[in-house]
Design goal:
single chain; 187 residues; alpha/beta; six-stranded mixed β-sheet; 6 helices; 27% helix; 19% strand
């Protein structure tokens, strides 16, 4: 695992795009602070950049560096969470503008899988984590379902042996506000 993470981090630091397993489904990923890398992800997915992307952070400390203020409700949700959950935070900062929603929010998940956790921690910045499919097509649940057009478009494909532990299901998405508001986007 260490060697795969090292290779992936090298590619990410050079502005490359990776195909990697997450705690949910396979993701197309890049440095969420690199505008050109994020643009490549949109291009690979044939997706409009007006749609926001989910990011992965290693822990709440990393989230703190990329949002102006973490709502108390979000901290409580992370503490009791027992399945993949993406939280939409207000006040994104320090990220590529094309990785942030038009209203300034950003969806971030702390992965519940050893490989992803170590990858993001070692990289030291949030990673884009969008499903490994062409926009509008079915989301592949495992590596064997990923279209060749996606596999050949990235700079590195992580060894599929690390997909163990993935749920094969999209995460829940919850939007939290500084006013204690909560909106369940996807349950």
């Amino acid at each position: 695992m260490t060697e795969q993470i090292k290779k992936a981090v090298e590619v990410l630091r050079k502005g490359g795009v990776i195909l990697y397993p997450t705690d949910t489904v396979w993701g197309i990923g890049c440095d969420a602070t690199n505008k050109e890398a994020v643009a490549k992800v949109y291009e690979i997915k044939k997706r409009s950049d007006s749609k926001s992307l989910v990011l992965l952070a290693s822990d709440l400390d990393m989230v703190c560096r990329y949002v102006k203020e973490i709502p108390e409700m979000a901290v409580q949700l992370v503490e009791v969470n027992d399945k993949p959950m993406t939280i939409i935070y207000p006040g994104a900062m320090g990220l590529a503008e094309n990785a942030v929603a038009e209203d300034g929010t950003v969806g971030i998940r702390i992965p519940m899988m050893d490989f992803c956790q170590q990858l993001v921690a070692r990289f030291g910045r949030p990673l884009v984590s969008t499903s490994a499919n062409i926009s509008g097509e079915a989301t592949p649940k495992k590596f064997s379902e990923i279209p060749e057009s996606i596999r050949s478009a990235v700079d590195l494909v992580v060894d599929p042996v690390f997909e163990k532990g993935a749920t094969g299901q999209a995460s829940s998405i919850i939007k939290v506000g500084l006013d204690y508001s909560i909106e369940i986007i996807r349950g």
